[in-house]
Amino acid sequence: MDALTAQTDALETPATGADDIATTTALATDIVLTGDRPTGPLHLGHYVGSLASRLATQEVVKRQYVLIADMQALTDHAGQGAAVADNVLKVALDYLAVGLDPAKTTFVLQSGVPELAELTTLYLNLVTVARLERNPTIKAEIEMRGFQRDLPAGFLCYPAAQAADITGFDATLVPVGEDQLPMIELSNEVVAKINRLAGTDVLTPARALLSSTPRLPGVDGRKASKSLGNAIPLSARPAEITEKVRAMFTDPDHLRVADPGKVVGNVVFAYLDAFDPDAAGLDELKARYRRGGLGDVAVKRRLEGILQAFVDPICQRRAVYGRDPAEVMRIVAAGTREAREVAAQTLRRVRGVFGLA
Q: Which residues of 249-275 are buried (b: 16+ CB within 10 A; e: fewer)?
């Protein structure tokens, strides 16, 4: 991919906002496992919540695996398999566009590592239904999706699959938000049970790398979601950014320019907090808004310009890589082969614990 690399190297890589990670050597022996479900293009919320930290960690850790979790996506998108498959390329393009480097971050297609599915099956023998149902993340997602007793078994059991992902690649560090901590907890419970059965340390527990960045809301104030259409994709064109910013919720009581406005809970300021590089200027803007005399239109124009400047180099890089989708998928395939060799070693150890040849 030398020709594509030469073209994309000339483009600016967005700032990571994670200097505290990039400047430390404390993670030099860590193996990172992270990833995304290919249910649609990635958006600015993904960048703030995970992609920025991945750009930083890939520079300092021993190895970083980023999992395109197509099997997990099917747990609640079983009737949309073709769309999930199409989104694999889109997500891989998003990874490359923001600056993830295949030489430092191994791209892995989950369905291309069948060892993970076998590990999941073995782990399910160690996890009770009651334990899965108590998982607060699962409970919240069941409620959000409106599942009742028609809950797909695959969805209920996906924490066991995540344990397989984490242990399959010998990951020691998993970047997550606080809502995903129960997944790390369950994975480590499985690790402890396997090690007790073996009488020795077959698997290594992982620890969480918590994000200090607040979750970026959708333009309507709800949780940013690909399915709700309330997020700004990393591949957004200028017209879409303009449309999304103009639709953002502000302070409903800020009816006139002269009225004092609230910054907390204001979606526009949430995005400015995440992307405005001028911290001092932003503080002054907030003070003016709180005092009154600053209209929502002016604030949105500032944000629109900042987001246009941020997304433009990402779109340029994406366009360059998009000229050769077959090469992008070759990158994914090469990473998947590499990851499968690691997962196969883990599976052999775990099979031995269960007395399987």
A: bbbeebeeeeeebebeebbbbbbbbbb
